């Protein structure tokens, strides 16, 4: 069963401003995480204690083979996602999302490295386990950007599953950077939020590119064909001028007929030539009585003056899109948004609640204590919440694309 291609959704000011508001919200969360985890003593202590507890749990609860495999999980996930994205791009020929995804990868990784190495400086309060600044995480950013690119090039009917697996794998990658001792929890959470903002910008860029290419003659092949035809017509005109001489003049075809009041061949029903112009009693073809009026009323979907040019609408063979129930008519399949809003809210509430409870405890959350384990669990939940929020934001705006 084949369906007519879905037209590009028109781009309005609202459809541009709303994704930008989502980007501002995600990156505002990055700024809040930056201030709490870097500029306050409480945030630094909670972050470093979570890292110390993760290292202690790594040696006590996980076998060596798991720890050896955890060192290579980010690379393996990145390679698998990149290969699958390449396969989907070739099969579905979604070249624009692939190119935009590459730009998103470069932009997100540049943003992470610029923040870490140039813009941000972690003040020393005397409680740091790692002296240099590791905020945000480069390992998490690299893997998460490839997973978002996979979501961009995924076929519409696989976007929900791709979004679900994407945010889960991104969250696991961020947790493993903490378990391996590479980063603190806030480093991974901020990296995921940065990637989420760039992902929303990528969706906006895809929408604008689709709208631009949907205009008549805007595709590169159409532009090339138009330029080629114009150049061919110019060469033919020059050849004709050389054959007849520069001073020769040939009047346009049909101009003498129009001067004598006769209808031209290309416009047999032109106003003022062979037929009365306006519709009404003066024009027998458009009169309100007689067989002409009856034949004209039989084609209510066309206003062409020539009855032979009228066509029935909808055209023969057209079938209603069965996926139109998921969105507005004509915009193709709209996958469900994953992860759900309830998942994002639950993870955020648990992470913030545990972190606040640990911060208000009178004793320190040192490694091995109940407070220390609650602290590292809060860090893991925060990473999962950042991944769920970022992937939901990207999937929400990607849903409107066919």
TrEMBL record:
Keywords: Membrane, Transmembrane, Transmembrane helix. InterPro entries: PAP2/HPO (IPR000326), PAP2/HPO_sf (IPR036938). Residues 234-246 have a biased composition (Basic and acidic residues). Residues 234-321 are annotated as: Disordered. Gene3D superfamilies: Phosphatidic acid phosphatase type 2/haloperoxidase. Residues 99-203 form the Phosphatidic acid phosphatase type 2/haloperoxidase domain. SMART domains: acidPPc. The chain crosses the membrane at residues 20-41, 61-88, 95-115, 135-153, 165-182, 188-209, 344-371, 377-395. The keyword ATP-binding does not apply. Residues 253-269 have a biased composition (Polar residues). Residues 291-321 have a biased composition (Low complexity). This is Phosphatidic acid phosphatase type 2/haloperoxidase domain-containing protein.
